Amino acid sequence: RKEVEQDPGPFNVPEGATVAFNCTYSNSASQSFFWYRQDCRKEPKLLMSVYSSGNEDGRFTAQLNRASQYISLLIRDSKLSDSATYLCVVNRDRGSTLGRLYFGRGTQLTVWP
Amino acid sequence: EAQVTQNPRYLITVTGKKLTVTCSQNMNHEYMSWYRQDPGLGLRQIYYSMNVEVTDKGDVPEGYKVSRKEKRNFPLILESPSPNQTSLYFCASSPPGQGARGTEAFFGQGTRLTVV
Hints:
The complex is a heterodimer. Chain A is mainly β. Chain A is about 0% helix and about 55% strand. Chain A contains no helices and eleven strands. In chain A, strands 2, 4, 5, 9, 10 and 11 form a six-stranded mixed β-sheet that branches. Chain A has a five-stranded antiparallel β-sheet with strand order 1-3-8-7-6, with no helix packed on it. By secondary structure, chain B is mainly β. The radius of gyration of chain B is 14 Å and the shape is globular. The interface between A and B is medium-sized, with 26 and 32 residues.
């Protein structure tokens, strides 16, 4: 089973829509969680970390459910500039895998006018 | 400016001709890693390094070598490239984790390699 699973999409939504991405991870030892954004053919960049209590950054809200091993990202009021691939990432901080990141395959989002 | 620099950005080479992709970071990060990205497969880790002279295999290490003689540099070596190593390669660095919060990985701009 893959370490991190994501729905690849694509998601095509109009400007102003709310869209949600989901992600599951297989290893209960996973300690920290992130969403990265990747524009076409460019390097991934951190969008936001995901904390146990859930967290919000402007139009973006991330949630973590440790019991279900499930992570989500909600984007409200979508903008054209949100079009990108969103990568779910987990990190097992303990032992020999300290700092090692596991990436989902990414969910592609296109926001149209 | 804090950054991870990869070179070259684009490379076309022939099967069997040894090549090295360089990666350098100026943030004094302990942790560095190499990934390849292929359509439908996402980012897969090739090798990683916890610190100078400490390297370990990731998920797809076959056909690759790395070295970490200095903290800032982490070159990726393909001793005998083959067409199935045609891919987009990313180098990344990050500081040590801070408890459960983990750390951000900073990526280079990528190297698009074609092996013919």
